[in-house]
Amino acid sequence: MSMLLTEFSKEESIYISIFDLTNLKLHIMKKQLLFTLAFLGGITFASAQTEISFDAAGDDLQSFTVGQQNSDDLDEGILTVSGTGVAVTNNNFMGIRSDTPTDDGATGTWIFTVSTTSATPINATLNLDMAKRPGCSVSGTVAVSGYTSTSYSFGSDGTDVSAVVDAPIEFGSIISLVSGTPLTVTITLDEMLNVDNTATSIFRLENVILERDGALSVEEISANNIVASVSPNPVTNSFQINSNKSVERVELYNITGRLVKTFGEEAHYDISDLATGIYIANIKTQLGSKTIKVVKE
Q1: pTM listed for this prediction
Q2: Domain 228-296 maps to which CATH number in 3.40.50.450, 3.40.50.720, 2.60.40.10, 3.40.190.10?
Q3: Which of 39, 50, 106, 274 has a 20 to 30 A CA-CA distance from 63?
Q4: Reduced to 3 states, what is the DSSP secondary structure of residue 76?
Q5: For residue 275, what is the DSSP state?
Q6: What is residue 35's predicted lDDT score, i.e. its pLDDT?
């Protein structure tokens, strides 16, 4: 009997030891799991920065940077390339370049939103600090939700493949910002042609600038919109420009984006010496520019 109890005690002791060991393992696994969850909970996963906010209490002119630095207001989340385009990103810009030096198929878009926390509407001008390689021409549109789109066109102006030239775009309408109603800005690159480059063409967005214009009435906002037309169009020898703003300069580009004529403000713009075809007139005023297609017969 004593021997049986002794044997039982040994088996019981072994059982209890196994039970305790199992509990210990479960306890350790539980602590490891809790530690892992706490560690993961402390990690902040970076997300794309695609929205900027105009500070109602800040300066009248506020600039927002574009790039890959942590301090940048907008990053690669705003850029989508298409066609044969290649995304080019660094700490100072988000851009689109051609696939090869002779490629003309690069297209794409930059999309971001603009907001404010102000309960009172803020009227502002939207300026886009853009740049391109000198030997290429670019054209496209800038759209803001709820407003008429603005077209842009920049021609070839050099062959220095190591340089970039400014290509600023001012949106044609005063935009109104108010809390709870963010506006979506879409910059579309419709065409980028390699005219004089010996390197790949590049078009890039560097900064977004908003400038407060004060509380404008509906009539004043409408008056600030640039309205311009060309007549006659098609053109035989010369055309006139009808604009609600004073014309400072007119640049005429051919279909490949090459600058072919430059005018000041004139009563009649003579293009009798040009070949028949399609041209782009970039009409510059004090409040921005307007692009119009001109057909020469």
Answers
A1: 0.59
A2: 2.60.40.10
A3: 106
A4: helix
A5: P
A6: 45
